[in-house]
Amino acid sequence: MVTSVTTKPNIPPPPPAGHVKLHWRIRLRRDKSLVIMTIPAVVLLLVFSYAPLFGLITAFQYYDPLVGVRNSPWAGAEQFTTLFQDPLFWDALKNTLYLSLVQLILFFPVPIVLALLLNTVLSERLRNLIQSIVYLPHFFSWVLTITIFQQMLGGAGVLNQFLRQHDIGTWDIMTNSDTFALLITAQAVWKEAGWGIIVFLAALAAINTQLYEAATVDGAGRWRRLWHITLPGMRGVIVLMLVLRLGNALTVGFEQLLLQRVAVGHQAADVLDTFSFYYGIATNNYSYGAAAGLFKSVISLLLIWGANKLAHAFGEDGLYRK
């Protein structure tokens, strides 16, 4: 007797609960409010970040604004050849890397430390007061910030007046090119460190408080809780901010340096941004400035790509998950 065997067709298993793939129209209707909220930001990004990218073609031209991009003669790589032979460009690049390194070492850890200290304040009213005070300088312009430092540390400032009254030699700070890197780092810390703690406070708030309670029951002190719970809980955000910082390393306070360039000299204050302005836009040599800007953008892209790869190597997400 022959028995027939029926085989079941290979039907793929259903997707697990919570991972059902929805059609894009359904997702659009579901997230309509969020999409509408993002439209202004997307428009601003397109207009002020992506649309100007078409102007990079001027770096390969002898650009003349009177005839426009289409009619300007083609220069090829000549602007870059001239740029790489210019000693002022290499001085600006050296200053940019040096100032970025100083700010990375002295400025980047400050918001993390401030967030950790602020998180230990038990009184909510006192914490809100301290937050308001440290946030406030972020809303000051660089003109006002440098004016405050000038009034405090300048030749006729409060510090030097005090030194003169006590027959002590004055301290040249605002015009000293040797300590200029420390000066602009101090200005950046005073102005932006308070604003920078917002992200780290959010990371601290996301840490499960039960971990602290369990560690306290096990006899862990404050420093052990900090080392084994707080810092590991903040590690992902710290790595992300470090990647973003490295990607923005070649952008060192254009307005801040522009305002103090005359006081300390171009040898100490010229960076790639001010180089593009003074030797490109200010001299009507727009293609030369565009070439310097394009060089900076390419190096910044390589830095952020390398930093993100390094974050993946240490098991962190970085800017995106691997």
How would you describe this protein?
The chain is mainly alpha-helical and 322 residues long. Helix content is 66%, strand content 0%. It has 16 helices and no strands. It has helices spanning 24-30, 32-50, 68-71, 78-84, 87-106, 109-119, 124-135, 142-153, 158-165, 180-205, 209-217, 222-247, 254-264, 266-269, 272-281, 286-313. The longest helix is centred in the last third of the chain and has 28 residues, at 286-313. It is globular and about 75 Å long. The protein starts with 23 loop residues before the first helix and ends in a 9-residue tail after the last helix.
Strand content: under 5%
- Rg result: 27 Å
Alpha-beta classification: mainly alpha
Instruction: List the total number of helices.
Output: 16
**General form:** globular
- Poorly predicted residue ranges: 1-6
Helix-strand pattern: HHHHHHHHHHHHHHHH
Distance between the termini: 58 Å
Instruction: Please give the number of β-strands.
Output: 0
Proportion of helical residues: 55-70%
Largest sheet: none
Mean pLDDT comes to 83
